[in-house]
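pasting input
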Amino acid sequence: MSPASAINLDLTAHEHAERLRAGEYSSRELTEATLTRIHAQQPALNAYITFTDELALAQAEAADRRIAAGDAGPLTGIPVAVKDLLSTEGVQTTAASRILEGYTPIFDCTVVARLRSAGAVIVGKTNLDEFAMGSSNEHSAFGPVHNPWDTARVPGGSSGGSAATVAARGVPLSLGTDTGGSIRQPAALCGIVGLKPTYGRVSRYGVVAFASSLEQVGPFARDARDAADLLATIAGRDPLDSTTAPQPVPDYSAELTRGLDGLRVGVPAQFFEGLDDGVRQAVEGAIDAFERGGAVVERGVELPTTPAALPVYYIIAPSEASANLARYDGVRYGYSFTEGSSVEEEMSETRRRGFGDEVKRRIMIGTYALSAGYYDAFYLKAQRVRTLIQREFSEALATHDLLLTPTSPSVAFKIGEKVDDPYAMYLNDLYTLPVNIAGNPGVSTPCGFDQGLPVGLQLIGRPFEEGTLLRATHAYQAETDWHTQAPPPLA
Amino acid sequence: MALTSDDVRHIARLARLALSDDEVERMRDQLSSILDHFQVLSEIDTDGVPPTAHSFELSNVERPDVPGEPVSRDAILEGAPRREDGYFRVRAVLD
C-alpha cells in the first residue's frame, strides 16, 4: 500500500480501477487524496457547493470490502462528483439557488442511486448556473466557477463545477445535466469529454426540473472509456421516469475499439458560421484526423433550419421552466418569506428574493410565451419549427453515421464579459442547442487550443447510438493527445 | 417587439414574481430585445407541420397497479417553513 500522497490523481477512472483491484492502493486512500486535492483547489476554482467527506469515506470503505470480495465493477471505489441539481438523500441540494436554502432531499435521484449501487464514491455536489440556466456558471448564488486553464475565465455552464473539477484533475468523473449544451459546452471550454445522451436514455427522476422535454443527465470524463463506463452505469429504463426509453442499453465499452474505418461523417455547413478562426482551425485539424483514420467525410451537409434552434430553444425551455419553477412557493420547502399580509404577497416576495436575475428573466419569457394571445405565435410556432429541425437531423443521419461540428463558437471568455448581455450569452450554445431540440445524443472532446485555451469538437449521432459517438471519440483520442493535456497547476 | 412596463407587471403577476420599479424597467428592455430575436421564426413556413412536444414516440407507459410504501408524512413536512398538526401552514386565503 502506498501513502495517499503518492497516488497519481492524473489517472483516469479505469486506470485507478486496475490499481484498486491489484491492491496498489485502497479506495479509502484514493478518496482521502482526492478530498485533499479538491478542498485545496476550492479557493481557486469554487467548483463545489457541498463537500461530502464523511459520506465519501464511508462509501470508500464499503467499496474496499467489495473489491476484496471480488465484487467490483468499473466504478467501484472511484471518486465521482455530481452536479448540485441532482437530489441526494440527506445531503443538501441547492440548484445554486437561494430559493432552495436549507433544503435536504428525502430521496436520491435515480442516477445517484445507480452510482451508489455501482460502488462509486460521491465526494461532493458541484456548482452550476442557478437551476442550470446559463452558459458561464456566473449565475450561481454561490459565486462563479473559475476555469482551471485561466482562473480569470469562465468554465462554461451550466455544469461548470462538474467540468472544472474533472479538468483540474480533482476527480476522474462527474455528472452534469445538458438542456441546451450544459455538458458539452463546459467540457469544450475546460478541455475534457462531456456527453449528452439521447433524450430518454437516462432517468430524470429526482433531477431538479428546468426544461423537461430537453434535459438529460450525462458524464464528464477525460477519455472515452471512462465516459462509456459512467454512461453505462446511469443509462436505462426507470420505472420512476415514464419518459425513459425501453431500448436496451448496449455494451458501450465493447463498441469502443471498432475504429473510424468506414464511418460516414457529415460536416454541416450551418455549424461553421459565426465561429472564431482558431476554433475553425482546430476543428479542421480534427476533420483531417478522421479522414486519416479511415472515416469518409462529406462536407457541406445542409441543415438549413438549425440556426432557428436558438429562438426555438429560448421559447420552449423558458416556457417549460416557468411551469416547472411554479413549485417554488415557499410553502413546502426551501426559502420562505413569511412577513407578508397575504398568500400571494408572500409567494411573490419569496420568489423575488429567492430567484436570481437569469432565472427571473426566463420565468418571465416563458410566462409571456404561454400567456393568452401569444401561445400560438410563440410556443406552438416553436414546437412546429422543432419538428422541422428534428426532421433535418434525421435526414442527415440517414446517410451519415455521425455529424461533426465545433462544440462552441469560441474558447472560454472572461468572467464578467457577457453577463450583462443575455442574448450574447445565449449565442454560446448555438451549436449545441439544436441537438437538444432534436433529442439526439452529442459528445464533446478536446481537439486543440486557441489562444492557449481548449477547443471542443462535437459529434452528433442517431438516437440511442451513443456507442457510435464513444467509438469515434475513442478512435480520435487514440490518434491525438489533446485529451491528455492538463491545465497548469493552480496557484 | 416592444413591451410596456404594464405588460411586464402583468406577466410578473401571472408568474407570482414581485418586481421593483427598477427591475420592471430593466426587464422591459431585456425582454423586448430577446423577443425581437424570436421574430425570425415567423419567416419559417410551418404550414401543415405538426408540433413536437417530445422528441421520441412513447405512449401509454404502464406499470402493475400494486400499492407501494408511501413516503412518511413527517419526512415530507420536515423541510416545511411553517407546519401545524401534520399540515403545511399558509396565510388564510379567505377572510
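fyi The mean pLDDT of chain A is 96.
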